[in-house]
């Protein structure tokens, strides 16, 4: 039989646990947002996501909390995008090529040799044209927050060094499912194999594919140097990374909190781009130290001649010339 003292102790303990639970960060937050992305925790995308989460929580006084799920924990790129659309995931970050099936016009950003340098790409993505592209998500139940980046794609493989377009012929290369990427590598005589990023390391390790194409920073953070011997700095395409949010969840936030989320997504884009720029040379040196053979000045013109015009012509035939024209105008304005 419990004594009155024992009952009083149990009651106080229960109340104390209730207060502690109520005062936990998750309980105190009015909105807890799940943020999913496919890359390792060492990658700039994850570091930028942490920066974004910290700033949003601070500026909303803890009422909006962001929980990050890196490294494909919530599924492949396509699964995460579908999750945002369905509302099972609140925010996701993925490479632009994975959105081409949803908003085909975004494929303009994936055209080979579209941008001359990162600064030019950033100016275009942050321009009115970039915002118009992000706003096309609205019709899909998604809010486009900002463009972060994957970066300029460089070619790696385990068979031989790539100096010219001819060296690409016959290579079995993992690519994204984006039609522009597939058409470009097919034109170069390669065998492109689209697959999720999460499957890439194992596919390289087992020889399912010979190589892949990604920025230097991601080649390091994903430890692809462990299964790839040759790196050629082709910079054949730039890949943006839209940060998207379930539109119903975004609309449920108070207007001032919507503004904070949008503002911090843009600031995190600048944060992430700066990290990539600072780390690129250091990451390249690291890859060389691990034994990768680097072709620092491949014949990019030989590649451009094969892929630039036919892939652009394909895009214009399918979606019209207005988006490509708008980007060219934005590029010219960025150079002024």
TrEMBL record:
<dbReference type="InterPro" id="IPR004682">
    <property type="entry name" value="TRAP_DctP"/>
</dbReference>
<protein>
    <recommendedName>
        <fullName>ABC transporter substrate-binding protein</fullName>
    </recommendedName>
</protein>
<feature type="signal peptide">
    <location>
        <begin position="1"/>
        <end position="29"/>
    </location>
</feature>
<dbReference type="GO" id="GO:0055085">
    <property type="term" value="P:transmembrane transport"/>
</dbReference>
<keyword id="KW-0732">Signal</keyword>
<dbReference type="GO" id="GO:0030288">
    <property type="term" value="C:outer membrane-bounded periplasmic space"/>
</dbReference>
<dbReference type="Pfam" id="PF03480">
    <property type="entry name" value="DctP"/>
</dbReference>
<dbReference type="InterPro" id="IPR018389">
    <property type="entry name" value="DctP_fam"/>
</dbReference>
<dbReference type="GO" id="GO:0030246">
    <property type="term" value="F:carbohydrate binding"/>
</dbReference>
<dbReference type="InterPro" id="IPR038404">
    <property type="entry name" value="TRAP_DctP_sf"/>
</dbReference>
């Amino acid at each position: 039989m419990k004594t009155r003292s024992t009952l009083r102790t149990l009651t106080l303990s229960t109340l104390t646990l209730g207060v502690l639970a109520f005062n936990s960060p998750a309980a105190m937050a009015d909105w807890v947002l799940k943020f999913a992305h496919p890359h390792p925790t060492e990658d700039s995308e994850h570091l930028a996501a942490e920066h974004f989460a910290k700033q949003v929580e601070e500026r909303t006084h803890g009422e909006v909390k962001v929980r990050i799920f890196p490294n494909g924990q919530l599924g492949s790129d396509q699964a995460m995008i579908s999750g945002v659309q369905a509302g099972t995931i609140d925010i996701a970050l993925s490479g632009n090529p994975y959105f081409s099936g949803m908003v085909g016009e975004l494929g303009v950003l994936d055209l080979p040799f579209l941008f001359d340098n990162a600064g030019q790409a950033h100016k275009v993505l942050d321009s009115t044209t970039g915002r118009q592209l992000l706003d096309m998500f609205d019709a899909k139940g998604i809010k486009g927050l900002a463009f972060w980046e994957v970066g300029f794609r460089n070619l790696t493989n385990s068979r031989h060094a790539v100096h010219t377009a001819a060296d690409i012929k016959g290579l079995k290369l993992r690519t994204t499912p984006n039609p522009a990427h597939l058409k470009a590598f097919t034109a170069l005589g390669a065998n492109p194999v689209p697959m999720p990023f999460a499957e890439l390391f194992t596919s390289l390790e087992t020889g399912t594919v010979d190589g892949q194409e990604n920025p230097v920073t991601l080649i390091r953070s994903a430890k692809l140097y462990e299964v790839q011997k040759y790196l050629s700095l082709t910079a054949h395409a730039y890949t943006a990374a839209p940060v998207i949010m379930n539109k119903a969840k975004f609309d449920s936030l108070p207007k001032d909190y919507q503004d904070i989320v949008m503002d911090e997504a843009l600031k995190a884009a600048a944060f992430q781009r700066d990290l990539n720029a600072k780390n690129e040379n250091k990451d390249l040196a690291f890859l060389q130290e691990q034994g990768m053979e680097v072709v620092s000045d491949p014949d990019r013109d030989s590649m451009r001649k094969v892929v630039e015009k036919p892939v652009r012509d394909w895009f214009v035939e399918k979606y019209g010339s207005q988006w490509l024209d708008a980007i060219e105008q934005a590029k010219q304005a960025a150079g002024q």
